[in-house]
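[step 3/7] fold_predict: job queued, chain A
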Amino acid sequence: MHQDEICVAAAYIRVSTEDQTEYSPAAQLRELKEYASAHSLILDDRYIYADEGISGRRAEKRPAFLRMVNDAKSPEHPFDVVLVHKFDRFARSREDSIVYKSMLRKAGVEVISIKEPLAEGNYSGVMEAIYESFAEAYSINLGQEVKKGMTEKARRGEPQTTAPFGYRMENHQFVPDAAEAPIVKDLFQRFARGDETFFGLAKELNARNVKTHRGNCFENRTIEYILRNPVYIGKLRWNPAGRTRRNFNSPDIMVVDARHEPLIDMETWEQVQSRVEQQKAHWRYHGRPSYDRKHWLAGIVRCAACGATLIWQNPHYFKCNNYVRGRCRYSQHIAVDALSEAFIHRLQNDMVSAKTPDCRLIRARGGVDTEIRQLRQNLDRIARKQERLTDAYLNGAMEIDEFKALKQAIDAEREAAKAALDAELAAVPKQDHAKILRDAIGAALRVLVSEDNSIAEKYNAANAIVDHCTFDKSTQTLSITYRLTV
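[step 4/7] structure written:
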């Protein structure tokens, strides 16, 4: 661009939540206008694009940025340059910067940083790359520091999110909501008694026009999320590794004591968790009710290649559901009678075999198991206390003598907690899991071989003991992993 040329300019402004005052939209716009005036650029108000409170790490999360790129590529070619305060306003990802600058250059649009002038000639690209690399490194380091700070706040039991249903936020603390807290208590009590399902509870709340904090209707998964959220027993759940995505058993999850008032007592909580686990084990993902099945093996046996269920294709064959839809290369088809006989034969062999069958144990909650869980949580709490003490010493918050005294006290507390846990574990009666499993297989077999039992009864009998089952046509192998609740 030559000094005597008059070009139309666009301005892109981005402000993230961690930025300081000098990066405010007004401050950026003022300096961009001053630059445009000094360099004979026409900055049209129609082409001022701003993303506020948005990180620059991912372009697809910035609507104004994407609108600017689309406008630049349009046949009208409304502007010739894009002005930014610094290159890190355009993008903090080097990869995004290369991709979108390339798009703009193809459209004849140049990106100019008003605070980072580039040298003329061959070195301009090198300088631009250096600026962008520093911006990306800063962004990565900032993200790590933010996550570290949030994790430390979580360890102290401080809220990291908006208030969940049943609470409101007051002075940075969850406080029971007078209208919603009774609803939460009722959900837990009714589910613990076995009166309702996720679906039934959601349906009733929707009929009463109760809405979530986002103004949405309740769904099965909304009810499940509430019933599995330890916030209601006075704790906070936090995953430093990122989003939990409903994997509530992830080893990355922290569950810590918090300062807010619990809505649910531990006994009710344990009853609800036990019933949730039973329902999740019994009702398979996207599974139909047992009374709505054409065959008792439908939904139980899966394709060994892709994991899809074998569906009852016609009165004579089961076939991989993904193969039918063109998503799997292996048909895995097998005659209905052959699959039924193979399944029953496998159960009969596992019931009398000297080898213990593959099995996933599910421990029922309540009683001794609850006490053990609480003792283990106490050990985790002591470990976190030790970490905080060490951090305080390393950061110069205390002298060595004070550190040694406190460490000695925590070590003694940990030893006492470990001894209590060992004693509780030693008192747990030993169970012959292999015998319990074989008895369960035998009970299921008696239902499956009887011609007097319905499809639903046979499905429920098989589903009660099978965790997952796969069929591999290439090896003619039926593999079963059992499920046993103890």
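[step 5/7] annotate
The radius of gyration is 31 Å.
Residues 124-155 form the longest helix (32 residues).
exit 0
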